[in-house]
Specification:
- InterPro entries: Mpv17_PMP22.
- By secondary structure, this protein is an all-alpha fold.
- The chain has one domain.
- It contains eight helices and no strands.
Amino acid sequence: MALFARLTSRFNAYYDERPLLTMMVTNSILGGIADTVAQTITSVRERAVRKHPNGQLNPREDALAIEIHELDRKNPLTDRELIPDSRTLPPPFDFERLTRFMAYGFCMAPVQFRWFKLLEKTFPITKTAAFLPAMKRVAFDQLIFAPFGVAAFFTVMTVAEGGGKREVYHKMRDMYVPTLKANYMLWPAVQVINFRLMPVQFQLVSSAVPSIEMRKQC
């Protein structure tokens, strides 16, 4: 607890001095952590798949993966992603992908930061009015920013991987709606807590780790 308090105090000090830069660095670090978790989950799951007799896992048995199986069907594992001559070892950790995610988090932070500032200004939370403004923030965030954020994520990451218009189109066609559905299953509830209880400087931190499933599918 003492360490957490010191980190929080240091974060607040950096935020007071340079709020935007602090958010960009924090978003980048959290993006890297989220992608590391996503790659680890994928690695564990693929190892289990390779050990399974028919090469597939029953969704009810797949307890280790934070999985939306509709996305798996849209983006199945290809042969070139498998390690040659191995059915037990996980795929190697993708440091280039990690770098892309951290760069995306760094560059996306100003947009998210200004969005949260806009919500805070448009729907102020006071001692006498807290719940309704928070719900309005959630509604605007999920109906406006979430669709934009998912589209931006897949577009930027596909281009960063060397894809062109065709690849972006296919990614959006196959992944956009399932990912948005997955987002709506979890993040509205998270954002209610985020907007209702978190100071503005921590709202971006609380939202900086988007769906691990979305990262796993890239």
